[in-house]
Design a protein that fits this description.
By secondary structure, the chain is of the alpha/beta class. The chain has two domains: 218 residues, Adenosylhomocysteinase-like (Rossmann fold), CATH 3.40.50.1480; 158 residues, Rossmann fold. 44% of the residues lie in helices and 15% in strands. The protein is built from 17 helices and 15 strands. It is globular and about 65 Å long. It starts with 9 loop residues before the first helix and ends with a helix. Its cofactor is NAD(+).
Length: 411
Amino acid sequence: MSTLKDPGLASLGHDKMNWVRRKMPVLNALRDRYVKEQPFKGQRIAISLHLEAKTAVLAELLHIGGASVSITSSNPLSTQDDVAAALATTGVEVHAFRGANDEEFDQFHQHVLDIEPTLLIDDGGELTERLHSSRKDLARNVLGGAEETTTGVTRLRALAGEHRLLYPMIAVNDADMKHLFDNQYGTGQSTWDGIMRTTNLLIAGTTVVVAGYGWCGRGVADRARGLGARVIVTEVNPVRANEALMDGHQVMTMDQAAPYGDFFVTVTGNRDVIRPEHFVKMKDGAVLANAGHFDVEVDVKGLRAMATEVIPGRNENVEGFVLPTKQTLWLLAQGRLVNLAAGDGHPVEIMDLTFGLQALSLEYLLNHPLEPGVYPVDPAVDRWVAEIRLKALGIEIDTLTPDQEQYMASW
């Protein structure tokens, strides 16, 4: 039994799903095979991902492959209610609606775990956290899972480092066909899509402060420059700071950058990156957005506490905070993931790659029983996804001759 806001929205959701299927050659190739082979027959798959059209196609694919599937959203504001309604008509159990409060958000994850999963697809470790606390009794059923995000993999490694991880997890985020594309190009485009559609403001000629220069941060910075902005990067890692500098960006501390920024985008995976001591130095009208997994990078509680007034913006995803120093700062999407809470997430072609890795990683777990721990994606899986993508684009590449292979393998 699904938990939805409005089942009557299903036709709109099907339109979105039909649109993205046309641009997902990797999942379509898997679909053809899964219909015949039923690799997940008898498996119960619990999913926590941002619930929009691309995710729905993945969940449907796993169900077509024989699994019982139950899904919820990994963010209270990233659910698209029409897509959730459409997915529930395909045989997938759905527990999600946009704007869920903390209690409802937790209950949705509990309902998904009621399926007593044998396999997981997780985003930020939401399911794993509960399987190691309130639902620990169900962990014995889990053969393994796949983690989507940098934040989730970091949490998993911390758990494994304490020898407390109860099942094997594959770090999909670290695969080449994930982090080189999803994190960089996907986050770069979708973050600015979310900011621009939410604010309707011009980026060209402004100063953008990007906090964090990992793969996601460099994507955000690169796209900002492409839109005509000057970019300042803040970092704690000296190697990445040097990379940002050599890529043509200015590098400063957040304290130094605060007076200059027109837009601030956090992409660090850490908490309290922008704090009250930074807020008071910012320009009137500065825009604050977060593109990291959790809503802790901008100190929203601190911002609310110091504001003398909170005023509405142009839509539900924009709030203005009037400070004692008289300037107004505009917070987007309550400090949650701006590309999903205020947009449609990564482009279709990008998520096709990531979700192909997710599905194939679950197959790998079924065929290769592993001890508890964090494991890389099988290189053969990574390569297959890359090859399918090129084939779909009609692109051919060279292959090594036998002599070249021998040369590369020889002393």
